[in-house]
Amino acid sequence: MKTIGVLALQGAVSEHLSQIEGLGHKAVPITLPAQLATIDGLILPGGESTAMHILLGTFDFIPALITFIEEGHGVFGTCAGMVLLSQLNEGAFLEAEVVRNGFGRQIDSFEYHLPVELETGTISFPTVFIRAPFYASVGNAVKVLARIDTKIVAVETPTLLATAFHPELTEDTRLLAYFIDKKVTASQS
Q: Which positions are annotated as binding L-glutamine (predicted)?
């Protein structure tokens, strides 16, 4: 059993916590930087990326997050969390050109069955896009897992996973299980 934290400053927190527990792991809402020392992996949830970035600065989370990633811990960024991962440490962890709200406004939100190419095989994943970003391009160390047309909507590195969509708003936990197995457990082997 792993302990997975969900950054709980703003955004879709409770849905992530429920899915983590549903997979048999301990779920912890993270509200203080010191709590990062008590978890095995972290989810940066969807929400509003500008508000989250301001709150990260206000609560002095940024240095702790950088250290957490540098130590090799797994981090999963969804929607606004995907934006944050590409901005942390000036893109040193996840080199990508992000387009915020790249699929339009709230009214343009949509659901879509997306083929996602994981290390374990390609899955058709139900996705929810809400004012979603996308990556226009990524660095050589970043593996693209899914696109909609030319828009990159899911990527990974050895310890990071990022999606433009909200997997926590579906009942499908395969992507979360993949994160815990391949980014959290594998990083501690």
A: 47-49, 100, 130-131
